[in-house]
């Protein structure tokens, strides 16, 4: 009898699972709670964007589910990436607000258990624009000071762009500064900078403009260099690292910059049913064109420069397919070897 009961229970579970996957996207999402999972804690630019998306995307999803934000910090976003790719339910209830996962996959030596090309990308709402922000009372406010002053910069993990950009800058300008890692969130890095524990860190523009606009208004932070393909309109007098670099350093800077859209992208795990992924791609595209979403982003000083799922996939393949020889040189330059 016990064997029969177990068999019946297993059959019932299998039936219910099959029935759930047979649901239309609208039937599945109606009354459902969907989590936006991000690989950092509260208080930084990812949190700002995550809450913006959570507020607006539900009305574009069939069935209009409830959207919540989950924080899963660690390893520069790799822990969240591993979770979504491997252990999260593959039913469409867990959605990744990604970091620069293709770069992490290629540059991090261990702890990566995802394949960027196999994520089901929904698209990117922006590309991360980062710059070195230095507190106004600290040394390091110019390239000359970064070359000569005892400056300490903070960062997250060694696999995070905040560490890699700073390391590449050090090599490009022959800097004398130190880069320390281990801060779990952008919010904690900001507090450490305010307290004088670090001079500054490589921060996303929205972390300042959206979360600490008074720092710009009151000139509490100085920005000596930006890590973008071209100069931002808001920082037209600040050089890019690409401009400051030559030879191989310039090539590596351009390679890292190619990964910035993934740091503002969204994705599902590899085994989420195709019809739910398709429905969410349509919802994502509708959201980034929605006047209410765009106006809310403007009010929060959050940039929106969207890319399609196909373009994000193409960039992932470009990075992941880079030659082992080139990746070895990149790792050495960014301190990931």
For the largest beta sheet, what order do the strands appear in spatially? 2-1-3-10-4
* CATH class membership of the largest domain: Alpha Beta
User: CATH homologous superfamily name of the largest domain?
Assistant: Bordetella uptake gene, domain 1
| CATH topology title of the largest domain | D-Maltodextrin-Binding Protein, domain 2
Main beta-sheet strand count, sense and barrel state: 5 strands, mixed
Q: How many structural domains can be distinguished in the coordinates?
A: 2
Any low-confidence stretches, pLDDT <50, length ≥5?
Answer: 13-19
Q: What is the radius of gyration?
A: 21 Å
Describe this structure in words.
With 337 residues, this protein is an alpha/beta fold. It folds into two domains: 177 residues, D-Maltodextrin-Binding Protein, domain 2; 125 residues, D-Maltodextrin-Binding Protein, domain 2 (3-Layer(aba) Sandwich), CATH 3.40.190.10. Helix content is 46%, strand content 14%. It contains 16 helices and ten strands. Strands 2-1-3-10-4 form a five-stranded mixed sheet, with helices on both faces. Strands 7-6-8-5-9 form a five-stranded mixed sheet. About 2% of the residues have low confidence.
